[in-house]
Amino acid sequence: MAGRVVGRPWRFAAAALAAVLLGAGCSTDQRPVDGDSGNGRRQSARSQGERPPTRSQGERPSAGKPSERPRSGDLNGDGYDDFAAMVAGPSLVVVYGSADGLDPRRRTVFPQPASKTGPEQVQLFRADLDHDGYTDLVQAPDRRGPAVLRGGPRGVGDPQPLAGAPRSPAATGDFDGDGNADLFIPGGTTGPEGTVWFGPVKRGGAPARVQNLTNGRWPDSLPARFLAGDFDGDKATDLALWFYGTDPDMESDGDVTISGLQYLRGGPRGLKLSERRDRPDIGLEGQPGDVDGDGIDDLYTASFLAYRKQLGAGYWLSTRSGPETGERDGVSTSPASGLTDEPQYGGIGGTALGDVTGDGRADLVVSATGANNNNGVVWLVPDLLAAEAGGVQAVTLGTPGVPGSDTPPAGRGPTRNRITVVGPLLDTDGDKHLDVVFGAPGFLDAKKRDLDAFWVLRGTDEGMRYHRHFTVEDLR
Questions:
Q1: Half-sphere exposure (Cβ direction) of 460: Cα atoms closer than 13 Å
Q2: 238-245: strand order across its sheet
């Protein structure tokens, strides 16, 4: 039965989403990609006696202009958002937007060092670090040193090491509200819980100033999960830190349960501890996004219960008093659209929030990679604040007009697509509708787990509409 759920607690859905993301070893923005091992220290190809990879360049995008407040999605200032992702190869690829949307001919590809120790998680952040009017791309691997690809009028430049950073940043924002982009770099098992690099961050890597966070961690704990957003509307980014246990006396790799949470509010002097929460009532679960359009970040969640074929989407609004202080609501539908009679498996892939339909209200895009016998489905929940179950739109590789198939080709064995949203949502064609990109790991080579194929769904007044498909073969 499909219907609207009022006043229902959504903590379970958020916890399920967090568990899936942590268990899969990937974020909602990127899937894992092979990388170099480094034991927490930067190891460049040059330092190992190898020649650094050489980028490949397709057609250059149209020349853009700097802006006082550049769009986070637009890396070259031409008014069209650009797509960036880690792909099989491994490589970092940027595909530039245009009046006709994403075109793989307009691209820059940066080959990455091959891993000798297995997959590595790589996150990509967007921020104008040096305050030159162009959005930069921050590449944050979990085992190598971070790098910055500076935005410019004709696209991003070569990756440059973020000199002086002890490890990769885990969040970006404006933590002191001065209009400059800042970086949060998490701490380790000892020392500060984290460090804030306040912008502008010079091209050599030096921040304007530094704040070390020493608010008191839980014994035998490590800051391991991070949530950044302006949850009180004061124009300064706030930060939540989850601490996970690292008790060496526990079996296996130690106790990895949550020890506690610190909620820090941003302000002119930087981050200040506002609240400490202990188990079991941790809270602040979900993803940040402005659900109701009041300029304050809220929390949204998504879940897929396979045995019920049920999609759930919920939110908890923030107010000037902070997160979790406003209305709480959600919608569920069962059986969800786009599902077949194939076996269903639970779990959420990528999620993203933004205005796909162009009506000024925030829509939720969510993927369930285990749906339809692990082939996956992408859902659009229009206007999450007032969503109705009957309005949910589904896209799969079985949707008419979408290239691909949920039936494995002959000779590939029982491979599955596991399609997933690759965030953020982007206005790649400048029509004031955000577009959706989803990808599939191992679409071309069933032995690989990295993304190697992508589908672009244009945002329209009626929802998502298929526009273009490309693979890593089109990006070489």
A1: 10
A2: 221-229, 238-245, 258-265, 272-278
Residue 48 has pLDDT above 70, yes or no: no
Buried b (16+ CB within 10 A) or exposed e, 114-142: ebeeebbbbbbbbbbbbbebbbbbbbbbb
Q: What is the mean pLDDT of the chain?
A: 86
Q: Please answer whether residues 375 and 416 qualify as being in contact, where contact means their C-beta atoms are separated by less than 8 angstroms.
A: yes
Backbone angles phi, psi at 307, to 5 degrees: -70, -20
Cβ(473)–Cβ(402) below 8 Å: no
Detail the DSSP E strand segments found in 200-280: 209-213, 221-229, 238-245, 258-265, 272-278
- At residue 410 the predicted structure's pLDDT band, cuts being 50, 70 and 90, is low
- Round to whole Å and give the CA distance between 182 and 269: 13
Give the list of residues 6+ apart from residue 117 with CB closer than 8 angstroms, or none: 37, 143
Give the strand pairing for 238-245 and 258-265. antiparallel
CA distance 114 to 91: 9
Q: Token pair 């940066």 is at which residue?
A: 110
Q: Quick one: which H or E segment has residue 371? A: helix 371-374
Cα gap 372→49, rounded to integer Å = 47
> What pLDDT is attached to residue 46?
37
pTM given for the model: 0.87
CA atoms within 13 A on the CB side of 302: 28
CA geometry: angle 404, 407, 413, nearest 5 deg: 115
Q: Which amino acid is at 162?
A: L
- Are 202 and 210 contacting, i.e. CB atoms less than 8 angstroms apart? no
Q: Where are the beta strands (DSSP E) in 132-181?
A: 136-141, 147-149, 160-161, 171-173
